[in-house]
Write a sequence for this structure.
């Protein structure tokens, strides 16, 4: 599977015990909008190897953030506001919290943690 | 002298946008039908292209990235591909038209049928792209293209009633015998030509070819502020000449020879000689610009190595793509299609390409990780947002108006 297949897939929570088949805890949470990587792997001359930190799940759109997930980018009005509104309620879910990735859907583990998608400038 | 030649990139870029074969004829058509009542559109277009070309030049100088690399990165593969398809079609249609244009200009000078000139024109374009250094290419075509200023000279020699011209330009109205939709169709055609996307592709890639860095930001700004207003000025001069000579005579412009008619009347044989050189240089320059733009956009989208600063063997796919474009152009022209008609339909593709080109430039010009302290100021951002709305409206209205007016006829 390539990253392109993963983007746009619907994301569901885990079915809670006792619920009928096909019913999910919390239902459909959104779509995979992005994948986030950290550069903390094997160090090389220029950068380190990238490691998949987790997926960005966005309830209303699987479109790109166009770079506005970084809080330091605030211009030009009203583009950041529009894009952040389009991705309102989006969250980052860590790779460890993903139960499985299927052909048609992504399922999260029970009790997963939703982190903020915002990227602050590293100091 | 170095400073003077330093603006050649801006001038050559503007020639492709404002006085390429399609625009030469469109400007004369507009002048002969609407007088100067559409001159304001050229003004709006000049400000818009200055705004965004300056941004793309700044992004290229500071980050070393040309515009289509930025588009591919910010819009992602899907929207990037939509833009690539649309802009590439505009490029290809314009390449075709310009080769035809060079041939038509040579026909005007030599009386040899233009179809015979087409292989010569295409081979010359290819040779220049393959062999000639970028710097020499832009200086020669840029400077020779300037001979089109003879349109402005001819306008003076024709001794027009300046008050009438000023009246048309500054209190524009739709002439009685024309429809409102035809007026707006030509308004959008002129605006789209002024803002045509291959200008920023060429300008930013040219900046990379010339190795601009942060210390060249002033140079970039001078290029923009000299080149595009000059292009707009030439475009209005052509329309004014047509308004003075062709409009009263009721001549409808359908060919290149009618475009140069006012110059012959105003400035005589010498003027005619200048205008012929200018026509060949401008169409040839535009052919180079659009052929290179085709190569730049494809290479930058797919991540091939590109640029005339590399030897052709090191940028093989880039050069091969351009050779194929030229061959396609020749093949299309060999069917006998009117080269001037070809550019008129590129307005349709502008509808997709314009917003998808200028939005990513604006976003990246605001990104401190690329631009550091050279991000856009507030005034530039406010103006750019206004222009994005204008661009969006123009691109939405383009296709309906084209159908409604039968492409302005």
């Amino acid at each position: 599977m390539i990253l392109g297949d993963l983007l746009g897939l619907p994301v569901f929570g885990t079915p809670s015990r006792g619920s009928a088949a096909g019913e999910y805890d919390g239902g459909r949470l959104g779509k995979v909008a992005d994948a986030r990587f950290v550069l903390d792997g094997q160090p090389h001359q220029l950068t380190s190897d990238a490691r998949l930190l987790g997926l960005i799940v966005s309830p209303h759109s699987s479109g790109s953030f166009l770079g506005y997930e970084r809080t330091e980018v605030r211009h030009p009005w009203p583009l950041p506001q529009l894009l952040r509104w389009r991705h309102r309620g989006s969250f980052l879910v860590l790779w460890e919290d993903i139960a499985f990735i299927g052909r048609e859907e992504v399922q999260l583990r029970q009790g997963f943690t939703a982190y903020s998608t915002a990227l602050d400038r590293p100091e | 002298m170095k400073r003077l030649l330093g603006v050649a990139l801006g001038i050559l870029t503007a020639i492709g946008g404002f006085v390429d074969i399609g625009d030469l004829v469109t400007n004369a058509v507009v002048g002969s039908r609407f007088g100067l009542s559409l001159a304001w559109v050229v003004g709006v277009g000049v400000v818009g292209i200055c705004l965004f070309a300056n941004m793309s030049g700044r992004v290229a100088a500071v980050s070393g990235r040309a515009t289509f690399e930025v588009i591919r990165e910010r819009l992602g593969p899907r929207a990037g591909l939509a833009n690539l398809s649309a802009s590439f079609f505009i490029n290809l249609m314009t390449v075709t038209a310009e080769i035809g244009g060079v041939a038509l200009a040579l026909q005007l000078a030599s009386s040899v049928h233009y179809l015979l000139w087409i292989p010569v024109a295409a081979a010359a374009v290819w040779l220049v792209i393959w062999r000639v250094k970028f710097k020499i290419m832009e200086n020669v075509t840029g400077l020779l293209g300037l001979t089109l200023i003879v349109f402005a000279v001819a306008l003076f020699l024709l001794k027009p009633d300046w008050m009438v011209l000023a009246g048309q330009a500054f209190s524009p109205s739709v002439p009685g015998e024309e429809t409102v939709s035809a007026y707006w169709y030509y308004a959008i055609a002129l605006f789209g030509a002024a803002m045509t996307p291959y200008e920023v592709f060429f300008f930013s890639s040219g900046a990379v070819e010339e190795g601009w860095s942060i210390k060249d930001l002033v140079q970039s700004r001078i290029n923009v502020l000299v080149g595009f207003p000059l292009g707009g000025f030439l475009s209005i001069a052509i329309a004014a000449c047509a308004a003075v000579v062709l409009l009263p005579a009721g001549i409808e412009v359908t060919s290149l020879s009618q475009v140069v008619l006012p110059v012959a009347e105003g400035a005589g044989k010498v003027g005619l000689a200048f205008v012929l050189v200018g026509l060949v240089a401008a169409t040839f320059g535009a052919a180079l610009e659009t052929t290179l733009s085709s190569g730049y956009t494809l290479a930058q989208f797919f991540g091939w190595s590109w640029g005339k600063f590399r030897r052709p063997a090191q940028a093989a796919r880039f050069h091969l793509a351009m050779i194929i474009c030229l061959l396609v152009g020749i093949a299309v022209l060999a069917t006998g299609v009117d080269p001037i008609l070809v550019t008129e339909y590129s307005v349709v593709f502008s509808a997709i390409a314009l917003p998808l080109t200028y939005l990513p430039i604006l976003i990246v010009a605001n990104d401190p990780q690329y631009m550091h302290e050279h991000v856009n100021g507030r005034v530039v951002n406010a103006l750019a947002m206004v222009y994005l709305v204008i661009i969006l409206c123009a691109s939405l209205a383009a296709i309906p108006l084209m159908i409604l007016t039968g492409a302005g006829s």
The radius of gyration of chain B is 20 Å. The mean pLDDT of chain B is 89. Chain B touches chain A at residues 74-77, 360, 362-364, 366-369, 375-376, 381-382, 384-385 (CB under 8 Å).
